[in-house]
Amino acid sequence: MRRAIRRYALLGTVSALLLGAAAVGWLRAGWDRPAVPGDWPAVTVEIPAGASLRATSARLERSGVVASALQFEWLGRSGGEAGRIQPGEYALSPSMTPRQVLRKLVTGEVVLHPVTFPEGLTVAETLARLEAAGFGTAADYRRLFADPEVQAAYGVETAGVREPFEGYLFPDTYRFARGTPPDQVLAAVMRRLDAVFTPDRRARMAATGWSRHRVLTLASLIEKETARPEERPRVSAVFHNRLAAGMRLQSDPTVIYATPGFDGDIRARDLRRDDPYNTYRRAGLPPGPIANPGEASIAAAIDPADDDALYFVARGDGTHVFSETAAAHNRAVRRLRP
Fold first, then answer.
1. How far, in Å, CA of 179 to CA of 166, rounded?
2. What is the rounded distance in angstroms from the CA atom of residue 182 to the CA atom of residue 143?
3. Residues 39, 95: contact at Cβ < 8 Å?
C-alpha cells in the first residue's frame, strides 16, 4: 500500500511539473508573437501614473495591443521590469510583439504632441496656443514668468517691460508629452533660444556692446516691420543708422504695441501717446521686445546690411522703398500714398 501511495505521489509531482513547464512554455511562447500578425496601425494607450503591472497588462489586452494580459504580466515580472513602466500616452500597434511593447513602456517612448509658435507672436498669443494645445493655462505661465527666480535663472531682463519674457519665447515647432508642466515647456523654449545665439553671434554682440535683451528688442521691431527675408538686414541697417544718429526710430509696430485695444488704424493721437514703447515719442529702443522674433530677424539685428538708408516706406505688396534722405523719403511717400 505504501509503495502504491508513493508511486501515485510521484506521478502527481511529475504531472504537476509537466503542467507547470507547459504553462511556462505557453507564457514564454507569446512574448515574441504579435497579437495580430501583419502591419496594423497603432492605437493610443494611456498608462496612468502609479498603475501596477497587472493593471497595465489588462489595459493593453483590452486595447488589443497584446493577446494575453497574463503573458504580458509574466514577461514584465520575469525580467524584473514590473516597477519600471513609465506613465503616459503610447502609440502601440497589435503588430508589435509583447517584448517590443514592454521596451517602449520601460524607456518612456510616449506620444509627443506638436505646438507651433510662428514668428512675430506676442506673449499673450503664444500662451493662447499653449493653452489650446493642453500644455497648461496662460495663468500658469504668467505666474511662472513673474517669478524673479525664474527670470534670473534664464537671464531675462524685466526693467520697464510690459510683459516678462516678451521676445524670449522663440518661434518654432515644439513637441511635448501630454501633461508636460509649464516649467519644462519653458525650459525647452529657452534652450532653443540659447542655441540661436551661436558663439559667432555672441562674439559679434560682445564687439558691439549689444546685450541679448537689446538684440531681441531690435529683432522684434524688424520682425514686425517686414516679412521679406531679403529686407530684414536693410530694415536693421535703418534702425542702427537712426540710433547712431540720435534719431527716433518711428516704428509703427511700436505704436500698435503701445496702444490699448488697437483696432487696426493708427491715428494721430496714437502717434502722440506718451508711452515708453512709442518710438515716435521716445528716443532709442523701447524697454523690451514687442513680439517674439525668429532667427532671421535676430541675425539681422546683430549683423545689419552695409546700407546708409535712414527711412523706408511700404509699397503695399510686402516690400519697402529705402531712402537715405528725408527728401527722397517724402517723394516715395507721396508716390506710394497719394
1. 24
2. 10
3. yes
Instruction: Identify whether residues 248 and 306 lie together within a single domain.
Output: yes
Copy the grid coordinates of residue 28. 514564454
Containing domain of residue 69, as a range? 24-107
* Residue 14 scores a pLDDT above 50: no
What single letter denotes the amino acid at residue 196?
Answer: V
Sign of torsion over alpha carbons 158, 149, 165, 204: positive
Model pTM score: 0.86
CA distance 9 to 21: 18
Helix-, strand-, coil-residue percentages of the chain, each rounded to 5: 50, 10, 40
Residue owning grid cell 518654432: 172
Number of structural domains found in the chain: 3
Which of helix, strand or coil describes residue 168?
coil
Instruction: Give the residue from 210, 200, 209, 138 showing the smallest Cα distance to 169.
Output: 138
Q: Name the helix (H) or strand (E) containing 104.
A: helix 98-107
pLDDT of residue 18: 38
Q: Which of 171, 195, 219 is the C-terminal boundary of a domain? A: 195
Tens of pLDDT, residues 232-277 = 999 999 999 999 999 999 999 999 999 999 998 999 999 999 999 9
